[in-house]
Design goal:
By secondary structure, the chain is α/β, with parallel strands linked by helices. It contains 14 helices and eight strands. The longest helix is centred in the C-terminal third of the chain and has 20 residues. The radius of gyration is 24 Å and the shape is globular.
Length: 314
């Protein structure tokens, strides 16, 4: 009831164990706390919190307009609703290396299991759009060193994302991935890889876990879990999938209301009241209410007793 029972520290330990298991871990992207609970209910390994989703939730494009406070606050709301480990997109760390250090501690305090910091210039843009630019290698390494130095829980995962492949090719991504690991990255997120061979090249270059981003309408083919596992990928995220699905359904419902004057034609496509109540644990809250408030009011606190006491105190 209320929030997850698993502590943030235990979630971080769990994430480390999952990544060391040799099995591909699937992390769908949550667009709100309730969707995180649904991800857990459906048996997935963890929850991803996308910067693009949080931007879209505010009605903004994914071009670095969100602040650390906004992202950390929303990430906390999502992460605390599930017993699964949650990792968050921390963009470029919200500033220079000192800002990166502060960001790490804010996300630790928010209960996240880990984050990724990218090497784009600040402000950044969506990793699957054209026109990206990355910082020089020295700056990228400083961000990761700052992140690793700032964490207080050694199990908090520091992942380095590199977007350099879009500008300089896979070989440049391999070179940068090696350097980022040497700087303290616990895992590597090579963004916008085109082929399985691209992923395999990163896998051969480093000994840390690797994340694959399977986002729709992007630069990467939507490889299956089996295909990704076959080239040694440890984690796959589906960052905007649930938001796109939900917004698509919402749009179709609004169109039905506009066309027919009622939502009746699409009611059978909606989540039922019973299923919603199951996810938010109405039964648990009702049990709590009855256990706490199911008692008789003592006579001295009846209206007559309260009135008499008040009169004496006057």
């Amino acid at each position: 009831m209320l929030y997850a029972k698993t502590t943030a520290a235990q979630k971080r330990i769990t994430l480390r164990a999952l990544l060391a298991s040799g099995k591909l871990q699937q992390f769908p992207g949550a667009f709100n706390p309730l969707s995180a609970r649904l991800i857990q209910d459906k048996g997935f390994d963890g929850v991803y919190i996308s910067g693009a989703v949080l931007s879209a939730d505010l009605g903004l494009p994914d071009i670095g307009l969100t602040t650390l406070t906004e992202v950390a606050g929303r990430a906390q709301q999502i992460a605390r609703m599930t017993d699964l480990p949650a990792i968050v997109d921390a963009d470029t760390g919200f500033g220079e290396p000192m800002n990166v250090a502060r960001s790490v501690q804010e996300f630790e305090d928010a209960g996240l299991a880990g984050l990724h910091i990218e090497d784009q210039i600040n402000p950044k843009r969506c990793g699957h759009l054209d026109g990206k630019a990355v910082v020089d290698l020295d700056t990228a390494l400083k961000r990761i060193r700052a992140a690793a130095d700032a964490r207080r829980d050694e199990n908090f995962l520091i992942m380095a994302r590199t977007d350099v492949a879009a500008m300089e090719g896979t070989a440049a991504a391999v070179y940068r991935a090696k350097a980022l690991v040497d700087a303290g990255a616990d895992a590597i997120f090579p963004e916008a890889m085109h082929t399985l061979e691209d992923f395999a090249a990163i896998r051969a270059a480093v000994d840390v876990p690797i994340l694959a981003n399977m986002t729709e309408f992007g630069k990467s083919e939507l490889f299956t879990a089996e295909q990704l596992s076959g080239v040694g990928i440890n984690m796959v995220i589906y960052p905007v999938t649930l938001l796109r699905s939900a917004m698509g359904a919402a749009e179709r419902t609004l169109e039905a209301i506009a066309a027919y004057g009622t939502q009746q034609p699409v009611v059978d496509q909606m989540q039922t009241r019973a299923r919603l109540y199951e996810l938010v644990d109405y039964q648990g809250y009702n049990h709590f209410d009855s256990a706490v408030f199911n008692f008789a009011v003592p006579a001295q606190y009846s209206q007559q007793g309260v009135a008499s006491t008040s009169k004496e105190n006057d």
